[in-house]
Design goal:
The chain is mostly helical. It is 61% helix and 1% strand. The protein has a two-stranded antiparallel ribbon with strand order 1-2. The longest helix is centred in the last third of the chain and has 23 residues.
């Protein structure tokens, strides 16, 4: 309880507005020459008159604005967070999470958000494995071959163990007595986590929000205010868009409850 109280206290202290630099007013004072005519530069770092400067030296910045951060403003933070970050966080819900343990689903979400490379690697590995499975079965012409390829490809995100001991897998594919088993399993696995109304709405939401940030960057006057309009947040999270679209297109079967139900119904016919 003491640790929780300390965390709550630190939170309120951190969000409280403290005295710091006002960069808008600071830049205005510099352009007016209140800190002298020395220290102005162009985009290449060459000295120019302060009235024509597009950049300033570090020494002038510290002398005019100080070395501290700009004060935290909750109103600005909440507006930026709700406008530019929440759409991307809502898009994370479209990723396939089907573990029995809710904590495992949360860990998967955090790993995806925290490591874009890991998310992209998992997606690419799923696509390559699907092509490998199709290539391994391409030389067989048994009636259940295509169903086996479809089922094995769609179950890559599930804890599946395929064994060829005593030719169990081969008998499932070759023997016509098991045709009904494959047909039943395909039917019960024929659910998709793909392009729903909510998924399309979430993707459209983040695309429109990012387009607004791009439009703001071209229509606004950056010399008036140094506060960002969400360009950095939108550019930082844009990697999530192809990841979500890729998973929706693949539509893996990873809902544990449905998988147990489908396997149970199919095993009754084997």
């Amino acid at each position: 309880k003491a640790n929780i109280a300390i965390l709550i206290l630190l939170f309120f202290v951190s969000v409280h507005t403290v005295v710091g630099a006002n960069f808008d007013q600071c830049l205005q004072n510099i352009h007016q020459g209140n800190f002298g005519e020395v220290g102005g530069c162009d985009n290449h770092g060459q000295p120019v008159p302060i009235a024509n400067a597009t950049a300033i030296t570090y020494e002038l910045c510290v002398r005019a604005c100080g070395s501290g951060p700009e004060p935290f403003q909750w109103s600005v933070f909440s507006q930026e967070f709700s406008s530019w970050l929440l759409p991307w966080l809502a898009l994370v819900s479209q990723l396939p999470f089907g573990s029995e343990d809710k904590l495992d689903n949360l860990i998967s979400m955090l790993l995806t958000v925290g490591s874009p490379t890991l998310a992209a690697y998992s997606l690419a590995l799923t696509v390559l494995n699907g092509r490998w499975i199709a290539r391994r079965f391409s030389s067989y012409t048994f009636p259940n071959t295509q169903k086996a390829v479809r089922i094995l490809s769609s179950l890559q995100q599930s804890p599946l163990h395929v064994t060829d001991v005593n030719s169990l897998l081969a008998s499932l594919i070759v023997l016509r007595e098991n045709d009904e088993w494959w047909s039943e399993l395909v039917i019960w696995l024929n659910y998709t986590h793909t392009w729903s109304i909510s998924a399309v709405s979430s993707i459209a939401w983040v695309i429109i929000a990012y387009l607004f940030t791009v439009i703001d960057s071209f229509t606004g006057d950056i010399t008036i205010s140094v506060n960002g309009n969400g360009e950095s947040v939108g550019s930082l999270w844009i990697w999530l868009l192809p990841i979500v679209i890729g998973w929706l297109q693949i539509s893996p079967k990873c809902d544990s409850a449905r998988l147990f139900q489908a396997m149970g119904r199919a095993n009754n016919l084997a």
